[in-house]
Structure formats: structure tokens, C-alpha cells
UniProtKB/TrEMBL annotation:
Gene Ontology MF terms in the entry: DNA binding
Domain of life according to the entry: Bacteria
Gene source species: Xanthobacter tagetidis
Claim: Transcription is one of the keywords in the record: yes
Coiled-coil annotated residue ranges, if any: none
PROSITE patterns: HTH_TETR_1, HTH_TETR_2
TM region positions: none
Protein name listed in UniProt: TetR/AcrR family transcriptional regulator
Tagged with keyword Repeat: no
Length: 203
């Protein structure tokens, strides 16, 4: 009969997220992980497999809380508010990150995804989910007449995703709200539909 685990799996996985997030995949050793998680190396292997398997679990945990839960929470807001709140939370997270760890997703995209086809697929699934969220908000905003009709909805969503990733990279160098919000103001201005009666032809 298998012995019950002598640790809280959610708690130690969160510790693994913090360890990988702070140091990256390559620089993090199994010894580092075991020390951060408060378990032995043997317990780590028995519970989670090797370092690569644990990294994927940590990545999935981060994505669930940092991306999918946020999308679900913002989905039913008015479309412009949903988009702006998504970005505002990213700016706030950057401001509250004195270690300048950046975004685990972006870090993984740069470090592992180019060299690991399987993991690249996981990253693309997350990026696609974010772009789909932005596309839904653009389409809803156009139906309400509050989002510009310039450009295909998926291309506008791709622009928003690109700006988001750039914002997260820049935040590792300069997370000041002044700089980050300064990047976003013209983006949001481009996103808004022109006022009615300005001579713009209807769609």
C-alpha cells in the first residue's frame, strides 16, 4: 500500500513555480528545487518525475492562475474595460515585482520554447488563448460601436498580444508605471472607435 505524501502538493508546486520563475529552467537544479519546496530529492522524483516534468507542472500552474483565471474573470466585462483591465493588471504585477522576475510565460517562451518542440506547443496554446480573448473583445466592441473597425479582428488581437509580450519584456528592465502606461495610452487610443459624426464612412 502506497504511503501518503507528507507534504501539500499545491504548496510545494507553488514553491517550484517561484524557484523556476526566479532562476529560469537551466539555472535551477534539482537540489535548488528540493530546498525551495522543502522536500527531499527522492520525494521530488517520486511525486513529480524529473526536472522537465516538474517545470511543465509549474508552468501549467502559473498559466492557470495568471492567464486562464484572469481571462475567465474579465470575459464578461465591457470589451474595452476587459482589455484595459488585462493590461492594467500586468502593469500592477510588474510594479509589485521588486526582483524583476518578469512573466514566467514570457521567460519560458524565450528560454525553452525555441529548443523544445513539445513545450513550444504548450506555449503556443497559451498565446493562442490570449489572442482569442482579445479577438472576442474586439468583436464585441465592434458590435457595440466602441472599437475601431480598422484591420481584421484577429490582426488587432495579434497587435494587442504583441504589445503585451513587449510590455512584459520591458518591465524586467524598467517596470515603472509611467513608462509602461505610456506605451499603452496610444495603443488604447488606436483601439477606440472614432466619435460618430467625424466624417468617417460607416462600415
Amino acid at each position: 500500500m502506497a504511503r501518503p505524501r507528507a507534504f501539500d502538493e499545491a504548496e510545494v508546486l507553488e514553491a517550484a513555480v517561484d524557484c523556476f520563475w526566479s532562476q529560469g529552467y537551466e539555472a535551477t537544479s534539482v537540489r535548488d528545487l528540493a530546498a525551495e519546496m522543502g522536500i527531499t530529492g527522492a520525494s521530488l522524483y517520486n511525486a513529480f518525475g524529473d526536472k522537465r516534468a516538474l517545470y511543465e507542472l509549474a508552468f501549467d500552474r502559473y498559466v492557470r492562475a495568471g492567464v486562464h483565471d484572469r481571462i475567465a474573470r474579465l470575459e464578461d466585462l465591457p470589451p474595452l474595460e476587459a482589455i484595459e483591465t488585462f493590461f492594467a493588471e500586468v502593469v500592477e504585477n510588474a510594479r509589485a515585482d521588486p526582483a524583476r522576475k518578469g512573466c514566467f510565460l514570457v521567460n519560458a517562451t524565450l528560454e525553452l520554447a525555441p529548443h523544445d518542440p513539445e513545450f513550444r506547443g504548450h506555449v503556443m496554446d497559451v498565446l493562442d488563448a490570449m489572442q482569442a480573448f482579445f479577438r472576442r473583445q474586439v468583436e464585441k466592441g465592434r458590435a457595440l460601436g466602441v472599437v475601431t473597425r480598422s484591420g481584421a479582428a484577429d490582426e488587432v488581437a495579434g497587435m494587442l498580444l504583441g504589445q503585451l509580450l513587449g510590455l512584459r519584456v520591458l518591465s524586467r528592465v524598467d517596470p515603472s508605471p509611467e513608462r509602461l502606461n505610456g506605451m499603452l495610452r496610444p495603443l488604447f487610443a488606436l483601439l477606440r472607435a472614432p466619435p460618430q459624426g467625424d466624417g468617417t464612412a460607416p462600415p
